Amino acid sequence: MKKILIVEDDVSIHSALEELLQEANYKTYNAYSGTEAMLLLEKEKYDLILLDLMLPAINGEKIIEKVNDTPIIVLSAKISSEDKVNCLMAGACDYITKPFDSKELLARIEVQLRPKVKSPRILKYKELELLNDNRTLLVCSKRISLTKTEYAILKQLLLNPTQVITKNKLLDLISVDTEDCDENSMRVHISNLRKKIRNYTENEYIESIWGIGFKIKE
């Protein structure tokens, strides 16, 4: 049974979340302040955290900064783009504004808790085919050699073709394959990838989401 920590100081919302998750067969743990959440996180490992931002003592933003090994979905009444961008850039996996739809929340939780699957040997998207065994990209059947970092970036984007991947998250994901990349050099690698793809097609495949990250362009 997956363990979810609910960090919410509003008792009525907290109770509703607890009931919803338990009915969905999740084991719930409760924190009503940032301090209480940090104490629990020191003692226990959770599969996911549902996090309010406006908390007593330690606010939600500080918790995001301190937690780097557990998926965090933010549930907040803050609706500004700046708040969303800041949380995603800090490491949150998702951001849902209050009031929220229960079915949507459960769906987003399920997405975050899905087991990680092994990458297929070939990743295909429209005119692109990425061969996992030799770091080769086929664009309209034309063969392109990729650097280690270019390959790692494109692989993560193609594994999640409908999702925006934040810059921090993308750096974390590609660190498995390459350790020589930071935010500045990542922009250069992505620019080089775009140029290589553009040599064989007029279609743009890597989209920048301003202030957040990147995704495969639909």
Q: Any key phrases for this structure?
A:
218 residues; alpha/beta; Rossmann fold; Arc Repressor Mutant, subunit A; 2 domains; five-stranded parallel β-sheet; four-stranded antiparallel β-sheet; 8 helices; 12 strands; 22% strand
Going by CATH, the homologous superfamily of the largest domain would be Response regulator
* Gap between N and C termini: 36 Å
Overall domain count: 2
- CATH-level-2 architecture of the largest domain: 3-Layer(aba) Sandwich
Specify the overall morphology.
elongated
Q: Please list the strands of the largest sheet in the order they lie side by side.
A: 2-1-3-4-5
Unreliable residue stretches: none
Strand element count: 12
Average pLDDT for all residues? 90
String of helices and strands: EHEHEHEHEHEEEEHEHHEE
Describe what you observe in this structure.
Helix content is 40%, strand content 22%. It has two domains: 3-113, Response regulator (Rossmann fold), CATH 3.40.50.2300; 122-216, Winged helix-like DNA-binding domain superfamily/Winged helix DNA-binding domain (Arc Repressor Mutant, subunit A), CATH 1.10.10.10. Strands 2-1-3-4-5 form a five-stranded parallel β-sheet, sandwiched between helices. It has a four-stranded antiparallel β-sheet with strand order 6-7-8-9, covered by helices on one side. Strands 10-12-11 form a three-stranded antiparallel β-sheet. Strand 11 (206-209) and strand 12 form a beta hairpin. The model has no long low-confidence stretch (mean pLDDT 90). The chain has helices at 11-23, 34-43, 60-66, 81-90, 102-113, 148-159, 167-174, 183-198; strands spanning 3-7, 27-31, 48-51, 72-76, 94-97, 122-125, 128-131, 136-139, 142-145, 165-166, 206-209, 213-216. It is an alpha/beta fold and 218 residues long.
